[in-house]
Amino acid sequence: MERVYGTGSRCGCDPCQHRCGAGPRFRQSGAVDGAFLTLALLDLAVFAIGCAIVGGVYINQPNQSAVLTLFGTYVGTDSNSGLRWANPLVQVDRVSRRTMVTETSNLKVNDASGNPVEIGAAVAWHVDAPAKAVLQVEHYEDFVRIQSETCLRAFASEHPYDHHGDPDGEKTDGKGEGSAEVLTLLGGGSKVTDALRQQLETRLAVAGIVVEEARVMHLAYAPEIAQVMLRRQQARAVIAARGQIVKGAVGMVKDALDGLKEKGVKVDEDRTAALVSNLLVVLVSDREASPVVNAGTIYG
After folding, report:
1. Which residues does 127 contact at the CB level (< 8 Å), separation at least 6?
2. CB 55 within 8 A of CB 47
3. Do residues 76 and 84 lie in contact, with contact meaning Cβ atoms separated by under 8 Å?
4. Among 89, 88, 92, 99, which Cα is nearest to 78's?
5. Chain Cα centroid distance, residue 215
6. Residues 77-133: pLDDT tens digits?
7. Where are the transmembrane segments (predicted)?
8. Cα-flanking dihedrals φ and ψ of residue 274, to 5°?
9. Nearest Cα to 209, choosing from 104, 97, 128, 99?
10. Rg for the chain (alpha carbons), in Å?
11. Is the CB of residue 81 less than 8 Å from the CB of residue 60?
12. Does 188 or 36 have the greater pLDDT score?
């Protein structure tokens, strides 16, 4: 403690006599500096603790997970929703576990028969293993989109657009016997959906992604062959319809002949042939038949 005397006082008295009650002044510099330093350190500690608490707080939304890594080391996955806290030095990567839908662009690809077709699909998927989605691939959403288009292109090239031979959709061997069913893009239905989903799920398993559904949303022949294929489909439809008509007409003619025999009506072979011919003309023709009265015999 340093003792300091003034050279004079405001009251004009002798500083050595202290008649005005003014005593010597003391400067407590060491005690003041120590208290200030202690206070500053305490404030700094409180600030650091507050920053650590605030810096480690994060929020998990419902169906959302947080992948935690510390200095490049995987720490764990937090799938609990609400206000959460972790070490401020831990990196938090949030991953949504909600169902998402990815639509591919309309791809132009040659089918198994070599015909150019346009095909597009919609894929419903969700993340099942958030750690794999973050650590195994870069930008898992882009990974899903690219793999969806790649898988769709490969799938379309493995199957024909439609049946071009047997209308029943079966491969035939040399004896004409059906050997195996052909899965087509146009008529496959749920089988196409299931097969596409399984192939795509195999590709996305590395990222911990589960495919809920993969459905073809657009399917058509390429514009350069669309008209030709349309005429081909129309011709096949006409042939199928004609075949069904002939099959029904033959059955009706047989029933008519059997009915005549049951009634005891005797008809020779020539008249039977003429009757069958006339019935088939009436039943199969797409125009109304004009009745002709034969004035003579059937022989001329």
Report:
1. 65, 95, 96, 97, 133, 140, 207, 208, 209, 210
2. no
3. no
4. 92
5. 8
6. 888 888 887 878 888 889 999 999 999 999 999 999 888 999 999 999 999 999 999
7. 35-59
8. -65, -40
9. 128
10. 46
11. yes
12. 188
User: Tokens in use for 238?
Assistant: 């006409």
The span from the CA of 35 to the CA of 88, in Å, is 31
Beta bridge partners of 180: 171
DSSP conformational letter for 123: E
Q: Identity (one letter) of the amino acid at 78?
A: D
Beta strands (DSSP E) in 38-99 are: 57-60, 64-70, 73-78, 82-85, 91-96
CB 74 within 8 A of CB 92: no
pLDDT in tens, 182-219: 888 888 888 999 999 999 999 999 999 999 999 999 99
Phi-psi region of 208 (alpha: psi -120 to 50; beta: other; left: phi over 0): left
Nearest partner of 156 among 209, 115, 103, 125, judged by Cα: 115
- pTM metric for this prediction: 0.62
- Alpha-helix runs per DSSP H in 100-222: 130-135, 140-158, 190-204
From its phi and psi, is residue 246 left (phi > 0), alpha (psi between -120 and 50) or beta?
alpha
DSSP state of 162: S
Q: Please state at what angle helix 223-262 crosses helix 269-284, rounded to 10 degrees.
A: 140
Amino acid present at 229: M
Query: How far, in Å, are 279, 282, 283, 284, 294 from residue 291 at the CA level?
Result: 12, 10, 13, 15, 10
